Please model this.
Amino acid sequence: MANREQLIVALDYDNTADALALVDRCGGDVIYYKVGLELFLNSKGAVLEGLKERCKKIFLDLKFHDIPNTVAASCRWAAGLGVDMFNVHASGGADMLCRAREATDEGAAKSGFKRPVLLAVTILTSLDQEALSQVGFAGPPDENVLRLARLTHDAGLDGVVCSSKEAAMINREVPKPFLTVCPGIRPKWAQKGDQRRVMSPAEAITSGVGAIVVGRPITRAKDPQAAARRVLAEMGV
Ligand code: C5P
Model:
């Protein structure tokens, strides 16, 4: 049985007021929101407070990728912001992932917040086989995704951001509990936009995706709350 928190709405806005207006329009139907680099930077982080005042859950999608020491320090700060989930890049390597894990625990313990769910991005879904080989990754995308998902699991992280097409493979091959969070979701009634390999909310939940990230089909809808309700109904919530 799916639940409401398995829908994460992507707040891709260039200002805080529009982002929070969307949150208010969706009301109690949407619990979880994703804040990426654009909104985090243009709001100078302030959007997080607006979301917390509205008792919303936050996925801070900043995708840290740097040397282990720098990523660890960033994770400590992120965990101290009281967000519910955030992420790093798995291709930062095993040491970086382990340090991210430890620093997240430390940051949460020090600030008194609950430890956020820590995810790693496997392979960006915008990279096809040719683009991957250009940056030195041999083999097809799904082999790389699985290798990085295993690395993420072994470093003690909670799950990965991946394509919904890869979630079933990861669920099969990586020991549980291990969360898959998937963008590239399009209800049958929504435009694909720039997303190519898409799945519907129902298909994603059926194939074992832990949480779906949906942006424009909800944020650009004439009635965002009605669109969110349609997505939730398709998920079986
Ligand atoms: O509007 P749409 O539903 O395409 O938004 C999807 C969200 O997920 C955006 O915030 C986008 O940056 C993010 N995302 C993605 N594909 C990835 C990783 C993140 O679409 N591979």
In short: The mean pLDDT is 96.
